[in-house]
Structures are given as structure tokens and as C-alpha cells.
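Summary for the steering committee. The consortium agreed at its last meeting that each partner would contribute one worked example illustrating the joint modelling workflow. Our contribution is presented below. We chose a case with several input lines so that the handling of multiple components could be demonstrated. No manual editing was applied between input and output; the record is shown as generated.
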Amino acid sequence: MTPKTYSTYHQRGAEGTLYLADAIDFLKKIRKSTAGVVFLDPPFNIGKDYGNGKTEDRRPHKHYISWLEEVIGESVRILKPGGALYLYHLPSFATQLTGLLNELLQFRHWIAVCMKNTFVRGRRLYPAHYALLYYTKGDPLHFSRPKLSPVKCRRCNSYIKDYGGYRRIIEEKGINLSDVWDDLSPVRHNKRKSRPANELPMELLERVVAISGCANELFVDPFMGGGNGVLAAVGADMRFAACDIVEECCRLVSERIEHLIEEHRRQAWQTQMPIPKEDSLSIS
Ligand SMILES: C[S@@+](CC[C@H](N)C(=O)[O-])C[C@H]1O[C@@H](n2cnc3c(N)ncnc32)[C@H](O)[C@@H]1O
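What follows is the complete predicted structure of the assembly.
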């Protein structure tokens, strides 16, 4: 099916297009070697109803994997040399996709995004992370290593870890981000979500963009959901192309972008306001 353009933005503060479309149709529409970052957070095939019926998210396992492989194939096609691909999934699925990814791209990291409050199933260990696979098309075009502030105890305000002789350096420069992200919760409380269905925390997307993004590069998100990926990209002055199969997501994300543009305008207007001369302020 031809992807339907939902909304387009060409202004300072947001440049890109949202599509109401199936992910593969959408990816096929994008020209090859154009994307700086592709972020994939697909449905997990666990029977979730994203608004398009539970059966859509419960296909036979083989079909689901080959569908994901097609999504990956198209994503690799649109990546520019050095561009980055991120795939967020359960470890059991991620491991089935690494064969293809290792063939097509350069492995960078298996990032463990820690989660709490899960359940032990069968004869297994307690599952405590999601996998965020990070690959690049050859050597990375852009790479930055974000720094984190050392964590302090909420009660006594002292550092939770002992940094020994490195304490001053850490205070000055921060801690290098590792491949275990245990400081953000992938399962979020309803109060902090912009929609009822799954939504990744903004901090996770901002981190991805901070590592691999760059102003004016293209950020592509074929499963945009509530749009945190798009908003993180806009925040880093990246262009975006994103889609979702559910119209409600497109409506929500376009509202969020409009709001952001309005915010930019307001700030620009405030900074351009002439500062009154001192004597014009005097009463006498
Ligand atoms: C796991 S959620 C992504 C959540 C998103 N990363 C966020 O932070 O809000 C998967 C999204 O994919 C959408 N989706 C499901 N099947 C799709 C398809 N075939 N093509 C495009 N989008 C699809 C769902 O509507 C849902 O919003």
C-alpha cells in the first residue's frame, strides 16, 4: 500500500514528515543511503492491540521473524555509510536477528536496558533487561560517548558508589556511559506516558540521538508510537521521517510536534523582544 503522508514540517525547529503507513511500505519509499539513524522498536508479537487488532501482533513465529528480517533489510538499504541502526527487543528475539545484522552491518553494542517487576517463567533466570542492539554501516559516521552524573543517595546525598581516587575526575567530567543502562525504566507509569500503549522513555531516545545523531542528518522511525524518537531527533536538530500503522499515533505525534514548534516560536519571540532602555523604564 502507498504510505499516506500525514503531516509535513519545513520550518526551523522541525523538519520532516509523518506517514500513516505499514513500516515496510514506508521504508521502501525512502531513498537508499540517506538515513543517519534508524531506530526500530517493533511490536513484539505478543498479542498487543495497538489499535489495529490483537491478531496483527500475533503471527506465527517464523512469519514474524521473516517480517522483521525484511524490516532490517530495508533499514540497512536506507542507511548511509557510517549510519547507525538501533533495534529494541526482548533478548530471545534479538539473538535470532543478530545473524543477519552481523552479516550486513558492523556490531557495536548489545545494550542491556534494565527492567524491573518482571516474572520468572519456567526453568529460567529472572529476566531483567531488554536488548538494544546498536550496529553501524561500516565505521560510525557520528559517535559521541555521553557522560552521566554520579548517582547520589536521596537521603544522605553522598555518592552511592565509591570512586576512590577518581572521585574528583568523575565530579568534573562525569561517568562514561556503559552498555548497561540501569538508570531509566523501559516500563513506564501511565502518568508519565503520552499514550496508553507502550512508549519508551524520552531519555532512552535522547541517549541514542546523543550517541549517533547529528544536526541535519535524517532520523528514521518506522514504529514511532507516541513519538519520543521523533521528538528527540527534533531536539537535536535532525530531520525526521517516521510512520505508524495506527492513525491515533500520527495524530498524537503531530500534535506534539506542533506544540514544540509553538514553543520554539515563543522562545524566539521572547529573545527578539527589544530590551527597554533604562530611561524608558523610569517613572519620573
Ligand atoms: C512497541 S511500539 C513502539 C513504541 C514507540 N517506540 C514509542 O516510544 O512510543 C510499536 C508501534 O508499532 C506500530 N505498528 C505495529 N505494526 C506496525 C506496522 N506493520 N507498521 C508500522 N507500525 C506498526 C504500533 O502501532 C506501535 O505504535
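The two ends are 71 Å apart (CA to CA). Residues 22-23, 41, 43, 50, 198-200, 222-223, 225-226, 228-229, 243-246, 249 surround S-adenosylmethionine (CB under 6 Å).
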